[in-house]
Amino acid sequence: MAQYQASARAHTNIALIKYWGKKDQQLILPMNGSLSLTLDKFYTDTSVSYDKNLTQDEFYLNGAQKEDPKVMHFMDIVRQNTGFDSHAVIKSTNHVPTAAGLASSASAYAALALAATAAANKKFDRQKLSRIARRGSGSATRSIFGGFAEWLEGTDDQSSYAQPLEYENDWDIRMIAIVIDDQPKKVSSRQGMQTVVATSPFYSEWIKSAKTDLKNIKTALASQDFKHFGEIAESNALKMHALNLSAQPHFNYFAPASIIAMNIIEEIRELGYPCYYTMDAGPNVKVICKNADLSVILRQLQNHFPADHLLVAAPGPGAQLLD
Ligand code: ADP
Ligand code: DP6
């Protein structure tokens, strides 16, 4: 008997040029292209098992059954793409805090896209998987790939997908996640970006500026200019957070310790160790640095944060099937 079951692992990615707004809510087409680094430390494992006797999908997250309309809707999109009609039992485990700005939705939907299509015996190429993952959560588009990835904004379902960016460099890049709070946030990414697009008076400037940042950060990557690379990433993140402050109603993802962390990173940089921060839809701050400077930077950070709140990640692989 054919086995309609598969498991997959996908790693989270952290955007250095952010996606923060949709031009199509239903297809999840972004207002601007984005660029990210997939991380080895944080990931989601998901298994999908189709059962023709089921009348609806069953979803378990970290061992507990959940009603999640986004997962159900996503499975309908998978069924449209595979032509395989059964419902499934989906079991997912996050090795990353859920909804805390550490990109659980990115690893979640990349893993689910791969597992759910493979369980239907479809072997889609990565571009197609990236497009399917996009329909679950925009940032998942990029988690199909390892290392640096660029999400091409596109104009329709066909043209909006991620691709890997392979640059030769000797940076041996690391990302330190300073875990300030790993509890779910109050304003989801989906809600936050929608409010910003609808109300921020700066939104059209953001789109222009993010497009310029994307072009320039690729030049910095290609020319191995770490300083410029870090400066663009840091500035892009701050512009995204400035949109939130300018929205109606305004909101923000900063905790007092997030601001402290950003100031400390700037101080470490002034000591001569190149390091730059980025922040997503949550209070945790992520620091980009080279492996060669990692131990000094960690030591400095340990003067202010408990060592077990400083999680070091290296570039991680793309989504893969598990045995
Ligand atoms: P994060 O910063 O963690 O990405 P988001 O608000 O972007 O936060 O996304 C969190 C949402 O992603 C959760 O509320 C849930 O709907 C979804 N999610 C997280 N993990 C999983 C998973 N393993 N499987 C399916 N959906 C998940
Ligand atoms: C700040 O991908 O979680 O992390 O597409 O609505 O599911 P939806 O949003 P999501 O938003 C990610 C926002 C971000 C920036 C980024 O990853 O580019």
TrEMBL record:
Q: In what residue span(s) does the Mvd1 C-terminal domain sit?
A: 176-308
EC number annotated for this UniProt entry: 4.1.1.33
> What domain of life?
Bacteria
- InterPro entries per UniProt: GHMP_kinase_C_sf (IPR036554), Mev_decarb (IPR005935), Mev_diP_decarb (IPR029765), MVD-like_N (IPR053859), Mvd1_C (IPR041431), Ribosomal_Su5_D2-typ_SF (IPR020568), Ribsml_uS5_D2-typ_fold_subgr (IPR014721)
Q: Which GO terms describe its molecular function?
A: ATP binding; diphosphomevalonate decarboxylase activity
Does this UniProt record's set of keywords contain Transmembrane helix? no
Q: What class of enzyme is it?
A: lyase
Gene Ontology CC: one annotated term:
cytosol
Question: Where does the Diphosphomevalonate decarboxylase-like N-terminal domain lie?
Answer: 10-162
Entries under NCBIfam families matching the protein: mevDPdecarb
Protein name according to UniProt: diphosphomevalonate decarboxylase
Per the record, the gene is: mvaD
